[in-house]
Structure formats: structure tokens, C-alpha cells
Amino acid sequence: MASNTKAIVAGIVKNIQDEESIEELELLAKTAGAEVVAKVVQRKTSYDSAFYIGKGKAQEIAEVAKALEANAVIFDDDLTPVQIRNLENLIELQIIDRTTLILDIFAQRAKSKEGKIQVELAQLQHLLPRLTGKGIELSRFGGGIGTRGPGETKLETDKRHIKRRISYLKKELQKIKDSRHLLRSARKFPVISLVGYTNAGKSTLMNALTNAKVSSNDRLFDTLDTTTRLLILPDGRKALLSDTVGFIRKLPHEIVEAFKATLEEIKEADLLLLVADGSSRNFEEEINTVFKVLKDIQADNKPIVIAINKVDKINSSFILPLNSKNTVEISALYKKNLDELLKRICENLSKTRKFAEFLIPYDKLSIVDIIYQNGLIFSKESLPEGVKIQGEIEEFVINKYKNFLI
Ligand SMILES: Nc1nc2c(ncn2[C@@H]2O[C@H](COP(=O)(O)OP(=O)(O)OP(=O)(O)O)[C@@H](O)[C@H]2O)c(=O)[nH]1
Ligand SMILES: [Mg+2]
Fold first, then answer.
1. Torsions phi, psi of 387, nearest 5?
2. Interface confidence: ipTM more than 0.90
């Protein structure tokens, strides 16, 4: 559908990062299916409260749009309801902001029930405060970016209906979350979460390490739903490796809010495997974005291993700005240096082991197996009340069975 969208991308440039951000916006627009016919930037130190860009610049966009027969203008930041109304009146085309565009891509990608609910919730929460009194007549645009809901549904634009729908979707998400919580508490192995900027190579690495056969593609936000696979580490330990949605700069709070359940999994991981595209011109900005998001979701205090990916594309004279003992240069695509990466994962994951002493009753003997699988056992003794085990045990197992600690 959006193949009929001819878009102009526009934004304000205050510094080099903004320039990169607008380039990325262009890529996002293409990813959503639009044809980008022009790029308009304004060098300015502040945003205009009425038009976001200056009014003169907005007029210029209107003229360019007419000449190039564009039918939408996509802005690099989120717009206030006032800015949207003013821009719509002046330019007389569909006005799309950065979050609407990202969510449109998400809407096309969402496959799981949870993914679809999360996307629709984020879309509605973004749309609601931006509906003008008359309601945005989305239909006049004949579909296209910002009008798609997940699973081919059309976004509803009636305020009352939207509010009802939002509370319904929140309840549905809660239900899924509750059932997953049960699942998670039943897990036997430590969890490693792949995190990173979109298109860094997380899914490719997941496939290389586990034969997961998840989709990997050279496009932004290819992965939306979380996939988890068993990973066998070189020391024989087992862990669960989990691939999830990528991050992007200016990640809007509606998305963070709606994807809380997904992001919470990252928060509960035992180790983060951060994948960064070492061949990206924006390497530093991207890695900073990832750290910022991790901080926002309070997942920045975990053991972390950083995989600098796509080294096959890097000129060998290039010196990476990151160098620490937790950093490994790899190529997920050509399976280069993955042994070293796994070794690092092992070292850092074992930091989560602590000394513990359990007394497991005889009717709960399956727990003894789980403890064996997740620790280094020093002694095991059969007592009248149960089996006494001592050892260096994974922290998540200790927390899970703390009722049986001595
Ligand atoms: N040259 C090279 N390309 C790679 C490497 N790893 C991944 N790629 C390519 O990078 C692109 C993105 O890879 P994905 O694995 O889909 O990236 P992702 O991080 O899962 O991306 P999203 O799910 O969109 O957030 C694909 O075209 C991969 O083939 C690598 O080591 N070297
Ligand atoms: Mg992916």
C-alpha cells in the first residue's frame, strides 16, 4: 500500500547527530515502503512551537511538495497537536512524525499476538493526544503510513473508542505477562539477552550460535517478536539465548511503555550480549543509544559482553573506539571469532555464581537436578529431612529456591 506514498523527509539540524538522524529517517521511510522524493533540513538551534521548523521553511516544503507531487511529509521528531494542525493547514498533505513512522514499520512486522497488541497500544497512545477536534480523517489519505494497524486492521480514530480500546489492550497485555511470568519462573537455565541497535546483526548471531533459523535481513526492525533458544556453552553449561526488538535513537516513550513486557525480559536477563555494528559510520552514537536505553529500562547493572560485529567489513587499519576485556570482535555472518565470544560469555556468566547450601526435601528431588545443572557442586549428603547440597550455584537458582537454603 504505502508504495503509493511519495514523501519528503524534513528535520532540524543542530549538530552532526541530527544529520545522522535525518539520514536514518530516510531509511526508515523507505523501510516503511515510501518513496523519498526530497530531503529538507533547516539549520537552527531551537524548534518552532507553532510549526516545528520555521514557518518560512514549512512554506518552502509546501512548494517543493507540489512540484514533486509528494503526498506526505515526514518529520524527524515527534510533533505536538498544534504543530501537526498548523503544518496540515499550511502544507495540505499528510503530516507524519518519527514515532508514527517507526510504529508503521512495527505494524507491518508484528506477528505474535503480544507483538500486535504492543504495537496497536503504542499507536493509539501516540495518536490519542494528537487527534484534532474533528478527528484525523485518515481515510482521505487512502491508507499509507500511519494508518495501518497490526494485522491489516485500520486504526480507529474516534476518541472514545480509542480510550476503551487502550484499556482493553492493556488488560490483554497483562494477561499475557502473567502467563509468561509463570513460564519464566519455571525456567531452568540462565538467560542471555541479545541487545543492540536495529540492524546490528543480533538475529544473525542468534542463528550462528544456536541454529535458530530466525529471520535476519538488511532492513530496520526486522525482528519484533522475541525468540528464545537453548545455547550450550563451551564448559557444558546451558543457557537460554533470547533475540528481541532492536533499539533506535529517539526511541519514543510510547514504544518503551507499550513494549515494557518485552523490555522487562532484558531487565531480568542474567547477562546481556550487546551486538554493535562495527562497520557502521555511526558506531559510537549507536552504542551510546543502546546504553542509554538500557539505563532507561534499568538494565544497565548486569554483566555484559560486547560483540563488535561485521568486522569482515572493517578495514584492518581502523581502530575501534571500544576496547575492554568484555569486548570481542566477531563476524556473525562468517562465524568468525565465535569461540572467543562464547568463552567471554562463560567467564562473565559465571560471575553470577555464589556459594550456597541447600536442603532439598525428598519429594522435591527434581530441584537437585536443576542445582546440579547450574552449579559446581562440592558436596551432597542424604539426611533424614532431605538431600543437603553445597556448591557454587547460579544466582537465579539460589533466588528461585531460596526457601530451601540452609
Ligand atoms: N558483512 C556482515 N554482515 C552481517 C554480519 N552480521 C549480520 N550482517 C547483516 O546485517 C543485516 C542485519 O542483520 P540482522 O541479524 O537481521 O540484524 P538485527 O540486529 O537482528 O536487526 P533487527 O532485527 O532489524 O533489529 C543482515 O543483512 C545480515 O546479513 C556480519 O558479521 N558481517
Ligand atoms: Mg533481528
1. -95, 130
2. yes
